[in-house]
Amino acid sequence: MAPGSEQLFVSRLARLPVLAPTGETIGRIADVVIARRESGAPPPVLGFTVMVQRRPIFLGVGRVRELDESGATLSTGSVNLRPFQQREGETLVIGELLDARVVHRETGKQLRLNDVAIGRVREEWVVTALDVLEPGGGLRPWRRAKHLRLPWEQVAGLEPAESAERRVAALANLRPADLAAALQALPVQARQEVVAGLDDDRLAEAMEELPEELQAVLLAGLGDERAADVLEAMDPDDAADLLGELTEADRARLLALMVPDEAEPVRRLLVYDEETAGGLMTTEPVIMRAADTVAEALARVRDPDLPPALAAQVFVVRAPTQTPTGRYLGVAYLQRLLREPPSEELGACIDTDLDCIGPQEPTRRVAEYLATYDLLAAPVCDAQGRLLGAVSIDDVLDHLLPEAWRRGAGVAR
Questions:
Q1: Is residue 131 part of a domain?
Q2: Among 160, 179, 181, which Cα is nearest to 168's?
Q3: Among residues 26, 110, 142, 332, which is most buried (max CB within 10 A)?
Q4: Cα–Cα dist 160/44, whole Å
Q5: Contact 91, 81 (CB under 8 A)
């Protein structure tokens, strides 16, 4: 885009072609995506929705080399054809703003937004002006309306919605990792409002994806009763890691408020150093008996709430099947189970060649074990051969990556 580009009205950009550097038409502009700011300052242009083969995709403004009244020319011929999905904080100019009723801040008069102009200011494309209609007199005031050219700051009614309900609704369908990223990006007050509006299970899923220091901050703001409920909803290993960030008094108080059956596995995990297999493991892998059938095992691993790394294998033990279990017998991998008759007993399908990992093994050794044998999860046993839990590859990566990796983890379009 040339630095001297004049302002362009969005309604006139609609249907204009988007060209590759070679001149080939890739698609046509459908809308302009902006980010409304809480400060009321002119919003920046994020990009465009472009119709390609009858479906909208997103094209970031940084990918556009030239933009004028003849269309857009890209700086590169490659585009991401993933269908456009609007995100929290994004606004479609044509789809959401045009024809909106607004108010002139100085006169208080009711206006109607007719068009939005964008232009390049220094190195950023922003909204430069609004074309609004001021109603005239008579029985049909909008037919006698006159056009006014106003800066964004002089118009009220275009501010982004700030209610917690709207924020929670906008974030409701995000994956846990994406929800966690969105929470980190929110101002403190807005984050607290969203956390208050999430149900315990949804908040627990997001908390598991946050840095532990932020987890501790959010937990402290919940109040003891709800904090205990959220800890119960978290995986025991994640709950133990979080409680490990608290003082001994706070930890004891919250454990006492948890349901005993939920608190017990967390207490067991707290005795291990967090950089060991015991500190990394979950006490809730899929555990079954040798006499159970392949059909029963497949039914267990179909649980949609089961993490993929834990659904890849079934650990087979002697009774009891609650950790710490009876003697560990071996592991039945999902690939093997899919090839066996449904009526076959698990005892005939297990791999007994690999040794268990001890709970005191360091993280590095656990990572080497998983990498050596191409495993998604590994059994952790005590000196008596009882299964204590399992360490999954995702938990190992969480500990091996730099501490600040979550802060910089962006969500690519």
A1: yes
A2: 179
A3: 332
A4: 14
A5: no
Residue 226 is classified by DSSP as: H
pTM (global) more than 0.85: no
Coil, strand, or helix at residue 231? helix
278 belongs to a structural domain: no
| 46 token code pair | 């994020």
Residue numbers of the domain that contains 321: 287-399
Using one digit for the tens of pLDDT, what is the confidence trace for 194-239? 898 889 999 999 999 888 888 999 999 999 999 999 999 998 989 9
What is 116-183 written as a DSSP string? EEEEEETTEEEEEEEEEEE--SSS-GGGG-EEEEE-GGGEES-SPP--HHHHHHHHTTS-HHHHHHHH
Domain boundary among 209, 241, 271: 271
Please check whether residue 229 is in contact with residue 221, taking contact to mean a CB–CB distance below 8 angstroms. no
Sign of CA dihedral 248, 251, 254, 255: negative
Q: What is the domain count for the chain?
A: 3
Q: Whole-angstrom Cα distance, residue 359 to residue 383?
A: 9
Structure tokens at 165: 């309900």
What's the token pair of residue 355? 């040794």
| Residue 89 in tokens | 């904080």
Do the Cβ atoms of 31 and 92 come closer than 8 Å? yes
Six-digit token string for 172: 């409701």
In this prediction, residue 161 has a pLDDT band, given cuts at 50, 70 and 90, of: low
CATH assignment at residue 189 = 1.25.60.10
391, 325 Cβ separation under 8 angstroms:
no
